[in-house]
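Sample pair:
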Amino acid sequence: MSPNRIISALCLSLLACDPGVVGELERVSVPPLDPQHVDEEVQALTTLASMAVARSQHSATKLPSGKVIVIGGNETVLPSVELFDSATSSWSAAAPLATNRRAHTTTLLNDGTLLVVGGVGASSVLASCERYTPSTNTWAACAAFPRTSYGHTATLLNDGRVLVVGGVGYTNTTYFYDPTANSWTAGPPLAAGRMRHAAVRLNNGAVLISGGMISSGWTASTEILWPNSSAWQSAGTMRNPRNGHSMVVVNGWKNGLVLVAGGGGPNTHNKWEMYNVINGWGTVMGTEYTLGGHSSGTLIALADGTVLLVGDAYGNLNIERMPSNSYTWEVSDTLPQTRNDVPMVELADGKVLLPGGELTVVNGTNSKHASVLVTNAVPAAAFDSALKAPACRYQQSVCAATTSGRASVGPEANAPLTLNNSCADGTAGYFHSDESIDSIRIRSVDGTAITVGKPVIAEVDVWAYAGYTTDKLDLFITSNIATPAWSLVATLTPNKAGASRLSATFTMPSTLTFNYALRAQFRWMGTATPCTTGPYDDRDDLVFAVRWP
């Protein structure tokens, strides 16, 4: 610590100096040993520890504990089961299945157990059923499914039962499984028997099925079973016939409850469409196509409304992302190797796990992946040249920006990173010897899109001076990004010199507007006003879109 810092600290503790004099004391800063700095980029796609065995046609399900369980798979047909712990990014073996299987369905039941139905065994199609209890790491046989099956769907209903629909042989049969009674009962038959279709439970409890293969080939037909109904009804016709496609329910969107993409069929691998119960099937004008083909691709809808599309049987490596309510696809990352039929699971931190999958045909030979990827699905903030600050364009669960440096100290790109260049940073000192803000982020507590009136967490990475006890981080919020009126939500003190992450939880204001801004101010001494003038002070603003309740 420089002598002038010590004098200032004594003045503060003894209250013996004129505050005006203290504020003008010159501080002597010492340059770091290596003044060069490199901004740390946010790596969207990361390769994790591999599974013990390569897998395709397997299932991956997040358990109530937060761990991910991967079951069966592979054309040599595996009984093995593995658990992924996101806290340690490690795999461990779980109890194996009683019966080797692939192309089965796995459903998480309301009591936290898993139901595994059918699939292909070592030498035949299966009717057997197994239940897994995570707390005891044990499998138990359940009542056999009434027919041998793969290519079916299994959907958890609001009442806790499971509805299994269709399957190999283009069957029109459906069955309900009652976990309490451990029994199967026949359900209403489909109008058109099918396999390799997709199914989802809508928010109103109805089950929607789409496409698949019927006896005459691909189909665009869809059917819906309303709660307590004894018959399926037509849900209209998709714009494109498809099978082996992916379908997800997307929450929080203004239009379009269900999104469908990819699959096999005549020119459907690069097309998407959406459905809601009022308007039926359709798409937004001019947005019928994804950016690339995704035959045997997989969709996942995240808690904040972001949709990811991954995988292609013909070698498309791009991971595509549709931010909430945007109806626009963008490339979020690129796979390091081709894969398709890869299950995806959203982890507790909002990242998405991609374990294994089928390697695209190479020289006529298929192979499987044991490798595991994790991707940051939510895009980072981008500098907005009109606002003069980093901004997240879409409603997301988290908005984050790298802001390393302070004015010419660093230097900071696009300084000062405050709305309309409204507050200049101090220019004294050296990078990573004196105060600076390295990154700023805001995220929802519950993992859904940031919403007015709901709790959020602000996290700021700072670099504190050696005399860190006189450094303060102020957090302000505003609902008016044009003419900000900043409200202080927290003042924090680092507990060490150098790099620290400081965070505060608060409730978003209730003003209904489309964009808010968070201001992080890291200052040496002074008071918590939105734009201090200290020579070592750094401010960065972050603009983010919000959802209305």
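Residues 381-545 form a domain with the Immunoglobulin-like fold (CATH 2.60.40).
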